[in-house]
Design a protein that fits this description.
It is a single chain. By secondary structure, the chain is mainly α. The relative contact order is 0.18. The protein has helices at 3-13, 27-43, 59-64, 71-74, 84-95, 107-115, 155-162, 169-176, 191-201, 204-210, 215-228, 250-260, 263-274, and strands at residues 49-51, 98-100, 122-125, 140-146, 149-153. The protein is globular and about 65 Å long. The strands form 2 sheets. Strands 3-4-5 form a 3-stranded mixed sheet. A two-stranded parallel ribbon has the order 1-2. A hairpin with a 2-residue loop joins strand 4 and strand 5. It is built from 13 helices and 5 strands.
Length: 282
């Protein structure tokens, strides 16, 4: 689960009138925990991990593409959300859920690095379209939040939406541009032309080898490839994804539940975890 993405969604979805007994705002805490419990119940994973943005706008990406996610400088973390972030991390730790992040990288990089080291099937719960580039048939899919609920984005769905294979999504976005990521794209290249180029050449690398772009565009494309594609080889400690028992620290769960008035959210999350399918040798 792209934790940072869904924490933000919970903050804006749940009224800010929701507070603990001591007056602490808990709307994001409750919303995130309840949503996580719901997704575990619905999807029944054998293992689960939450990933975090330890850097909302990594310097190394901005150095390559200065406009990268520039909107994040104008729209920082809402002040009312900041004190809820450590509460959420405390709650996850008390339950025993792995939360994984790495300084200088975004949640998408953590997800991509985990996905590169585990066997399918893999389900990625995220609102970040950059992760579409990880989709492989039905083995690796993205559960993408939309107005009607979660869309199951597999290879066939990417082909339906964009007329490209899933692994080409990053190249497609780079060529077309993506305002949500601050990617300018190439002048005169919209979605249709970007898809045509991807289908014809297969990748931006092949396009650059063919020399079909002017120098300024080629320079942008070379840099954008390093910026957009999620990093898949980070040296992170792999999450276990489950525990022999849930919760990991019952006393801490009880204390946090009483302090913040979130005992019912803990109960839902723990029940969901306890109902996860057993591991098999398959």
């Amino acid at each position: 689960m792209d934790g940072s993405s869904f924490i933000f969604r919970a903050f804006y979805a749940i009224p800010q009138t929701m507070r603990g007994p001591d007056g602490t705002l808990t709307n994001a805490v409750r919303g995130f925990m309840d949503n996580l419990a719901r997704q575990i119940t619905d999807r029944r994973p054998r293992r689960v991990a939450v990933t975090t943005d330890e850097d909302w706008r990594p310097d190394w990406r901005v150095e390559l593409i200065p406009s990268y996610k520039e909107h994040r400088t104008a729209e920082p973390i809402p002040p009312a959300l900041i004190p809820q972030m450590p509460i959420i991390m405390d709650c996850l730790a008390a339950v025993g859920l792995d939360a994984v992040g790495l300084e200088g990288y975004e949640a998408e990089d953590i997800i991509a690095s985990i996905a590169s080291r585990v066997s399918p099937p893999i389900e990625i719960l995220s609102g970040d379209r950059d992760l579409f580039s990880l989709v492989r048939g039905r083995d690796v899919i993205v559960l993408y939040p939309e107005k009607g609920g979660l869309a199951t984005v597999d290879e066939a769905e990417i082909e339906r939406r964009y007329s490209i294979p899933g692994r080409a999504y990053s190249d497609f976005a780079i060529l077309r541009g993506d305002p949500s990521d601050g990617l300018p794209g190439l002048a005169g290249v919209g979605a249709k032309k970007a898809a045509d180029l991807v289908r014809r050449y297969g990748s931006i690398g092949a396009m650059l080898e063919a020399g079909i772009f002017r120098a300024a565009d080629a320079d942008y494309l070379e840099k954008a490839q390093r910026v957009v594609a999620p990093v898949t080889d980070l040296k992170i400690e792999m999450p276990r994804g489950r525990r022999d028992r849930w919760p990991d620290d019952p006393t801490r769960v009880q204390d946090l539940g009483a302090r913040y008035g979130i005992a019912s959210s803990f109960e839902r999350l723990i029940n969901a975890l306890q109902s996860m399918p057993a591991l098999t040798n398959a």
